Structures are given as C-alpha cells and as structure tokens.
C-alpha cells in the first residue's frame, strides 16, 4: 500500500489557496492528515486560518466561518491580524448584515488584536453601504471613545454620506475640516465632490474644483473625475465641450480610459441626432484598446429605440453583443420592450418578453411592469391580466396607478365585471398591493355597495394577515358608495 503523504502546515496553506470549492477547503482544513494523531494534534498556521476564513466569508458560509474564528481565538501561538477582521466586516457588508459587521468590530480586542482606524473605516464603509446614514453619524460621535484618529479614508466616507443625504454644504464643511487637521484630500475625495456638484448641475464649481486639484493640492484627475464632468456637460447640452474634455483625457498618457466615458458620449450623440459620429467613437475605442461592454451596447440600444425608433438596428446590436461574447443583460431587453410598447408594437414586445429565458436572461419586475403598461395602453386588458397573474406568482407588486388602469379598462365593458372582481380577489390573496394603493384603487373603481363582495375580499385579506387593510378597505368602499 502506498504510504500517505505527510502534509505540513505550509503545505496545507498551499492546498487551501489552490482549492476553489469552499466546502472541500473546509474539509481539508478540518482533516489535513489522513490518519490524525490525538497525542500530537496538527498545528495550523495563521495563514491557513486566514485563507479558510476568507473562502468561507466569500461563499457566505458565515456559520462555518464563525466556528473557525472561534477556534482561531483559542490559539496561543499567534494573534489574528486586523486585516483579517477588515475582510470579515466587508463580507458581512456585502451580505447586508451590518449588525454582524458591528459585532465583528466590537470583538476584535478579544482576539488580542489592536483596533485601528483601518477596521473602523471598514465598518464605516459597510454602515454607509447599507444605507444607515444615522449609524454613520453615530459612529463618528464614538471616535474619541475608541481612541482613534480619523484619516483621509474616514473623511471620504463621511463626505460620501453627506452627499447621499443631499447635503453638499455639509460635504464642503467636512472637506474644509480635514484640511484644517492637516489631512490631505485624495483623488477619491475630489471624485465624490465633483460627482455631487455635477449631479446638482453645478458644473462651474465642479470645473473649478478640478483645477484646484492640480494647482493647489497637486492631485492628478483620473477617469472618475472626468466621467461625471462629461456626463454633466452632456446633460446640459454641451456635447462639443464634452468631446473636448474626452480629447483632454486622451492627451494624458498616464490616464487610463474606460468605457463609461464613451458610453455617455454615445448616448448623448443619439439624443442630439448625431448618430453618424457613433461609428467614429466605436473605432476610437477599438484603436486605444477599450472593448465595448454591456453599458456601451445598452447606450446604443437606448439610442436606437428611444431616439431613432430603429428596432431592427436595436436587435442587430443584441446580435453583435452575442458575437462579441458580451452577454445582454435585463436592461438591454427592457429597453427594447419599452420602445416597442411605446411604438404600439405590443405583440413584438410580448414575443421578446417570452423569448428572454431562451436567451438566458429572465425578465425582472421592471420587465413585467413595462409589458403590463404597454398592454394596458394598447387596450389588451385580458393579456395584461395574464401578466399580472405571473407577477403575483413571482411575488412582484403592482402600484395603484397601473392597477387602476387595468380595472378601468376591464370595466369599460359590462361583460368584464366578473373579471374585475376576480382580479381584485386574486390581488388580495397575493397581498399584491399596499394599504394606500388599495384605498386609492377600490375607492375609484367600485360603483355599487355590494356587501357580499366586501366580505369575500375581507376574507381574502384576512388570510394574508392584513385585517387592518381589509377594515380600511371596507371603510373606503362604504364611504365611496355613500
């Protein structure tokens, strides 16, 4: 019999690094030797712990990851590094589990590891990424309690939080504060501010800040600075200036261009009826080695559908994407479906909608709503009802405006009164509308006080544990009919 190969701690780390399946990696970590020796347990290295924790975290196998961390905490030969906990915090952030991320940050000292501003910034970034602006403010108030000093990364997150809250003034105050503390702004700092200024049509201020980057702070603009500026110029109708700014980018040999700039310009060229220049843009991209991505193609599809009404060209763009091994996404199809519906070609829109799964792209809630609205606008209310049934089956909700449009269309003929009732009951069973939507819809479409129907509807609503909704719905019916 062939003798089993002995695995050293170093060899285990190598095997863990090479293993792509997290389940197998965990088995290997648990049982590194084929014949364990109870009197001489295998001593895993800190590197092995780091590798398996990261693999489990990326795979969102959090229970297993926590077990490994618990074992690691019992190790006396080494202490965990703060960088590992930063990664764990990020894993929880990507899974939108901010409470678990906070617990990880709080227990770092229990691993004989000193917390620094680095792990604080990781938690701050996760908190902001989960949309908890108040949590971000609360953490900043606790900075002194942790004995930590903010750095540029801290301020970058805080400035971004102010921008997301719609407070540009607060962002500027933080910018001034970091400078007063001797903390040099980074290109990320300027990128956040420039994007906010452009989004609020403050282009002159954005360009002045771009100039200050170079002259006052000696920070060189990158693509993330230029892109919002070009988008802002295109939005304000200054397309020629946007093209000039693109040339400025090209003249800088150290600046890495990306497809975002070109996608913005392509969409703008379609809007101002300069489609002929798009070919030149695509050729330039090819010449400098930038491959069109899904955003670039979607910009072209949007131009063909919304501006040119050239659906043959839009479908050809889809085919070109497949040829170039760039998979169309749901936005690609939704854009064409919306264009077809607006052009009154609901049959073609329905056909493309049904064909999406075969094209390896499943319709999302937006796809359903676009087709539903298109069918209602075309007077195809029974077909719209079928789309509604599919939406309810998938757990998608429909707003009051669209539901009212369907019901009013069905009510346009007396023969559809039964279909109206069945539609109401179906939506009630699926809990397919919120309370306010129910009040709006029912108050507008019910024309006679039919208590039996109210009772049936209330029963359906009770089945979904929304009795309060049913009570208010009954009140709306009574008020409407009185």
UniProtKB/TrEMBL annotation:
Q: Which Pfam families match?
A: PPR_1 (PF12854), PPR_2 (PF13041)
Q: Which domain of life is it from?
A: Eukaryota
Gene Ontology annotations of biological process type: embryo development ending in seed dormancy; root development; shoot system development
Query: PROSITE patterns of this UniProt entry?
Result: PPR (PS51375)
Give the keywords, sorted. Repeat
**PPR repeat placement:** 151-185, 186-221, 222-252, 258-292, 293-328, 329-363, 364-398
Tagged with keyword Repeat: yes
Give the molecular function GO annotations: mRNA binding
Q: Which PANTHER family match?
A: MITOCHONDRIAL GROUP I INTRON SPLICING FACTOR CCM1-RELATED, PENTATRICOPEPTIDE REPEAT-CONTAINING PROTEIN PET309, MITOCHONDRIAL
Q: Which NCBIfam families match?
A: PPR (TIGR00756)
Q: What is this protein called?
A: (wild Malaysian banana) hypothetical protein
Q: Which organism is it from?
A: Musa acuminata subsp. malaccensis (Wild banana)
